Every structure is written in structure tokens, then in C-alpha cells.
Amino acid sequence: MKSLLVRFFLFSLVIAACSIAVTAWLASQATTGAIRQEQGDALETDAQIFDELVRYAATHRDWTGAKSTVDDIARKYGRRIALTDGNGTTLVDTGDENSPQLPITPKALVDPLNVNGKIDPRAVGPFKLDDEEYRTLHAYADQLLQCVSRITIVEAPNGRPRLSNLGPGELSQWDDCSVGYRLYTLTVTEKAAYGQLQALFSKCLGQRTFEGRNYDKSPGPNTFDWEITTVNGAPPEVVACMDSSRREQLRPFVAAPAQLFLTSPTGDEPLAIDLSTTGATRITVVALGILALAGFASWLTATQLVRPIRALTAATKRTAEGDRTARVDGGSGEIGELARSFNAMSEKLAETERQRQAMVSDVAHELRTPLGNITGWLEATQDGLAEPDPHLIDMLLEESLLLQRLVDDLHDLAQADAGTLRLHPEPIALDDVVDQVVNAQQNREILLRAETTPVHITADPVRLRQALGNLVANAVRYTPPGGEVVVKLFRWQDEAVLEVTDTGTGIAPDDVPHVFDRFWRADKSRSRRTGGSGLGLAITRHLVEAHGGTVSVTSTLGEGSTFRISLLA
């Protein structure tokens, strides 16, 4: 029992250790996720700072007046921002004289003309409308809103109003609102800027040839979106010409490229996450504490589990020593189920012991009567009190046959219990078996008859005659003079059915479940008229079951009984 306790305890410790390991792994994963999220937030902040600096560079010719704007950005995001030119000269730095030296590698290059290979749309340069043009176009936009409902006007980076649902280069047709056409008319500023862009583009094209021919396409006269570099389907060289022309046109209007450095406000880089010795020790102590608590809880659980098992073991020992009254209260769960099974087994053993004692008593009684008769008459003959005439010999023979039947019955039951009851099946006519039994059991005081139909089965004819003979003898024994016993044989579906019906005393409802128990008799008086051994029906049940069949009984007290044997035909 101690080994079970120790094994359960060790198993619980293993579970606790695995739980700690899994918990540590989950904590590590959670920490890693938090770090990644923090890094993602930092990258998002850096991207926002970069975007605001690009906006400034795209709308200013240089970094001269950028200090106040960059200071505001630094305070907004809690970072130190420094900008240097290509030679390393500081253009703007939000740090002070006490700030550490800047890192060697910059975070990014702030160039509005090269943001991921593209020109920032906020770099409008010569395309920016003057005040008069701005007011005129917005007045057209207000008139268009009054003329057409359900439209939305947005403002392009150069100040031009346009419909929000139009993509670059798309124009709307206005049937009823002529102001819409005026809204999409190029201004003087835009015409001049497009003219300059076309000259630069043509110059670039003139310096190149495309598959042996010149390419003279340029932006159309009605283009309002300078981000459209060239017509669809143009060769890559043409696209490159348009990009270089736009950058050349916009360069004087934007700030020069600057290297961006981002650090903490003190200038230090964030510290790397490190599991110090103190932290490792703390984790170890906590893990050991959890392990101790898990071990203590496991010990308590194991003790509660072992307690009913110990009680069950003690009860088992008592039962083995002959105490049939041992019972266990195992509670609920699997142990409770085991305890209930033990109690059921103990009760069955007690019942078996009672049956054994009753059987010994019954066997002794059954043997005592014929043996007493035989001994008494033999002693009387020996003493000269009785003559050994044929009548006495017949009486002694009858008592001897009674003893022989009892011994044979006990032998048959012993074979059935040991599983050694042998059958010798062969094809037989079952109606012949019925006729043989009925003829052998004929009685002058009652009417015994058979109602049969031809039925052929494979069975042991001797054992079937014995089983059916026990039923018929039992019916005759309990049927009063003038009564009737009918033996029927018929086929029902795939079964051969034998029914023995009598008009006897019947069986009480409470006694019906016990009629096939050995040594059980409805008549407790053990009279010679109804005083059979109490083994016939028990033997019949074993013989029928050995043939793969079933035997049952239905009875009405005072009216008679019907015993039914069903065999596979």
C-alpha cells in the first residue's frame, strides 16, 4: 500500500514539474509577445516621426527653420531627433550639450523625392497654386456643391479642389453644371509647371532612343495630376525619364536629403532584456515554492485515496478469514464503485455460504430418510421382527433407488457447476422423445396426454428425456387426483417449443423466481407425495442451457402452472 502511495506521490510531483515547465514556457512566450508588441509600437512611432519630417521637407526649401517643428515632434513622441547632412554636419538636434554622442548608423534618410523609390505627393513645388487661383478654384467648388448634391470635394496637396471619387487623371462630364468644367481648367501656375516638366521630359527623351526610334510622347495638355508619370504601356526608359524630370523640377523646392537619428530623450539606446542572477534566483524560488505546494496537495490527495483502499484491504482480509459480514464505505468515484462491488461480492459470498449450509442440511435430510428406512428394516429383519419377504425387499429396493436418484442428481449438478456436463447430440425426432416420457410417467389418478407435431432437431436424446421427465414428474406430483397434465410440442418461428401444463396447485408469485433453485420446494413439509429432492428443476435448467435453450415458468396460484422449454430447431 505504501508503494501505491509513493508512486502516486511521485507521479503527482512529475505532473507538478511538467506544469511548472509549461507555465514557464507560456510566460516566456507571453514575454516574447509583449516584447514584439513593444518593438512594433516603437517601429510605428518611428514611422510617424519619419512621415512628419518628410512632410516638412516636402513643403520647405531647406532645414533652416526646422528647429521648432522638430522640437515639437520630439516632445510629442518622447524621442531625441537629430538630422545631419551627407557630410555629418548637424542640421537639427533636439538634444542638449549633455546628451551622449549620436549612434554611428542613422535610422533612415529623409528625402521627399525618394520615399521607398517614389516621390512624396506632398512635394508639389511649382504646381502650388497662388492665393488668387486658390480662391477662384474653391469658389468654383462651392458652386458645384450647390449645383450637384451627393458629391464630396477634397483638396490636393497643391491646393486644387477635386472630387474625392476620382482617381488620378480622371475627369467628370458635366451636363447641367458648367462650373464643373471651369473647376477642371488648368491655372496659369499649373500650365507653367507642366510646360517646364514637358521641357525637361523632352530633353531627357531626346538623349535616348527606344528600339531604334525616338519616343516623343509627353504628358497631355489636360493632365491635372502630376503624379502620373507617363502614358500607359510606355517603356521603362520613358518612365525613368519622367521620374528624373519630376525630381529635377522639384529639387529646388524641397529640403535637401538628411540623415535621421532617433534615440531616447537622453540619447541612450534601450537596454536589452537580460535575465539577471537575481531574477533567475527569484524564478527558482517561486518554482520550488510551487513544487512544494503541489507536493503537499498531492500527498493529501494520495492519503485520501489510499485511506479507503486500506479499509477495503482490511475488509478483504476479514472475508478471507471467514467473516462474511465485512462491508466497506468507499464514498464516491472509482474507489466508491470498487467498494460497492466488494460489498456486492461479500453479500454474494454470504448468500452462497447460506445456500451451501442449506444444501448440506437438505442433502443430509434427503439421505437420512431413505437410509433410516433401510437401516431400520434391516435391523428389524436381523432381530427377527420382520420377515425378508418380497414386499420388504421391494420397499428396500425403492428406498435404494431413491438414494441412487439423489446421488445421480447431485452428480449432475456437480458436473454442471464444473462445466464438465457432456452432451452427445444427434439428429432426433423430438415428438418421439415426448411420447417416451409421457408413456413412462402415466398415472392412474390424473390424465396425462401429449399434443405433438413432427419436429426434428439435433440434441442429446437422453438428456432431453431427463429434462422433460423432470418437468412432467413435477407436474404430476403437484396435480391432485382427477387433474390433467398436457405435454405440447410445436414449432414457433425458428424454435422447437415444449410446454408442460398442469391443473395443479400452482405457484405463489413470490415463489416463481425460486422454482429453479436447487433444493427449493413450494411444499416445505417434505411429504412423500410431494417430497422430491428439490433438484429436478435445477438440473432441468442446466440441461436446457447446455443445449443452448431456455426454460421458463408461468403460474397462477390454485389454477396450475406451465413450464416452457425453447430450443433452436
Helical fraction equals 40-55%
**Any idea what the CATH superfamily of one domain is called?**
Histidine kinase-like ATPase, C-terminal domain
Order of helices and strands: HHEEEHEEHHHEHHHEHEEHEEHEE
**Kindly state the mean pLDDT as a whole number?**
80
Shape: elongated
Spatial arrangement of strands, main beta sheet: 8-10-11-13-12
Keywords summarizing the entry:
12% strand, alpha+beta, single chain, five-stranded mixed sheet, four-stranded antiparallel sheet, Heat Shock Protein 90, 50% helix, 12 helices, 569 residues
Give an overview in words.
This protein has 569 residues and is α+β, with helices and mostly antiparallel strands. Among the domains are: 4-119, no CATH class; 125-253, no CATH class; 423-568, Heat Shock Protein 90 (2-Layer Sandwich), CATH 3.30.565. The protein is built from 12 helices and 13 strands. The chain has helices at 2-59, 67-77, 131-147, 179-183, 188-206, 236-250, 277-320, 333-382, 390-418, 430-440, 461-477, 536-546; strands at 80-84, 90-93, 108-110, 153-155, 161-163, 258-263, 426-429, 447-451, 456-459, 484-492, 495-502, 550-556, 560-568. A hairpin with a 2-residue loop joins strand 10 and strand 11 (495-502). Helix 5 packs across helix 6, helix 7 packs parallel to helix 8 (333-382) and helix 9 (390-418) crosses helix 12. Mean pLDDT is 80; it is low at 219-224, 270-276 and 525-531.
